[in-house]
Specification:
The chain is an alpha+beta fold. The protein has eight helices and eleven strands. The protein has helices at 9-22, 35-42, 46-58, 86-92, 111-117, 155-158, 163-169, 188-194, and strands spanning 31-33, 62-65, 69-72, 77-80, 97-108, 124-134, 137-147, 174-185, 201-211, 216-225, 229-232. It has a six-stranded antiparallel sheet. A three-stranded antiparallel sheet has the order 1-3-2. The chain is elongated and about 65 Å long.
């Protein structure tokens, strides 16, 4: 700790702990001990340690457990804003992604879905609902519509790989996407699926993906746990 720095000691400690969680020095499940022990070990006041811990509790990186102390949770997934799938991003980060298929059926396309896919309303589409987990922890509730006949996939396969990998295997060349990101409160049903309290903040994403011929091949409407997930943007100054 740099006691001569204008940066508050609690914030310096919070940054160091966050960095240790992100780089794997503090692995999920690690116990940090109680605030008194931490303050003594670090030579800091208890209020300083308490404020640093609360900062990371608010970020979803730590949790206080009565009678146990402070424990490290799984770090938040920081997903770059590019045309990639959640499964691929989690897999590349070593987060052991898994999928539970909740719905897999053919149904007529409602107006918004038909408009997104560029097909007549009522046309048959394949509808998928999936729950994506990482290290066994719920991360996202995924809903996708695909043009009927685009790809043949059974439910068992969808539970072992990502949708974009499946499309690529079927010789669908993904080229670009139109995407919007927002936020809202979780309904009771969504909260139960994602292991969150009702009303918890969720990130929303709607995406229409196009192949190299300009055909819409997928429309997704997804929900992500805000405490475990964020999008990263790279912003450039306009010339």
């Amino acid at each position: 700790m740099d006691r001569t720095s204008p940066v508050p000691l609690y914030f310096q400690l919070a940054q160091q702990l966050e960095s240790a969680v992100e780089n794997g020095t503090l692995t999920p499940g690690t116990l940090l001990g109680n605030e008194i022990d931490l303050a003594t070990r670090l030579g800091l006041s208890r209020p300083t340690v308490r404020q640093a811990i609360q900062t990371l509790v608010d970020k979803g990186l730590l949790v206080r457990r009565r009678g146990v102390g402070t424990q490290v949770l799984h770090s938040r997934v920081r997903r770059p804003l590019e045309l990639s799938s959640l499964y691929d991003d989690l897999d590349a980060a070593g987060r052991r992604p898994a999928t539970r298929v909740l719905v897999d059926r053919l149904e007529p396309a409602a107006g918004p879905v038909a408009a997104a896919l560029g097909i007549p309303a009522g046309s048959e589409v394949r509808y998928l609902e999936r729950l994506r987990t990482a290290h066994g922890e719920p991360m996202a509730y995924l809903r996708n519509h695909l043009p009927a006949g685009l790809v043949t996939v059974d439910t068992a396969l969808l539970e072992t790989t990502g949708l974009y990998r499946t499309l690529r295997t079927a010789a669908v060349t993904l080229h670009s996407a139109r995407q919007s990101i927002g936020a809202r409160a979780a309904t009771a049903a969504e909260a139960a699926l994602l292991d969150e309290p009702e009303g918890a903040p969720l990130l929303t994403m709607e995406r229409t993906t196009f192949d190299d011929t300009g055909r819409a091949v997928e429309y997704g409407s997804h929900l992500y746990r805000a405490a475990r997930y964020s999008f990263e943007f790279q912003l450039m100054v306009r010339p």
